[in-house]
Design a protein that fits this description.
By secondary structure, the protein is of the alpha+beta class. It has two helices and six strands; from the N terminus they run βαβββαββ.
């Protein structure tokens, strides 16, 4: 299955100004994620060209396509699977794998509403409290 996912980041670094060592020490700024409803994958879903629309309080703040994630969102999953295979490990069936961010980070505050829609996959909406 594939699913719309919104990553929530929380960085200690002002304006996300960090180097690789710093982002690793900061646990890659990961704070959480929100998932939409799972969609059974079909080759008819064009993961490269599907449009993403990110809104903050009803205003569009980003429009991108799936190609923004390493050229194809499945590319990062393949890279992960190959790295694990080199170490004699594998992804467990049903594992949740976030493929990577497609848009730039958007700052939010209490009361903000974020909506993400991805063509062919649906969408999600969250409100920060």
């Amino acid at each position: 299955t594939v699913v719309v996912a919104l990553e929530i980041i929380d960085s200690r670094y002002e304006n996300f100004n960090f180097d690789l060592k710093s982002v690793i020490a900061d646990n890659t700024s990961a704070a959480g994620w929100v998932l939409g409803s799972p969609v059974k994958y079909s080759p008819a879903i064009d993961l490269v060209n599907c449009g993403f629309v990110l809104e903050l309080n009803g205003e569009i703040v980003s429009t991108v396509s799936g190609a923004a994630v390493l050229g194809h969102p499945a590319q990062s999953v393949a890279m992960l699977a190959n790295l694990l295979a080199e170490k004699g490990r594998e992804l467990p069936a049903g594992a949740l794998v976030l493929t990577g961010g497609a848009s730039a980070a958007v700052a939010v505050k209490a009361g903000d509403r974020v909506t993400l829609k991805i063509q062919g996959l649906g969408g999600l909406e969250i409100r920060f409290v």
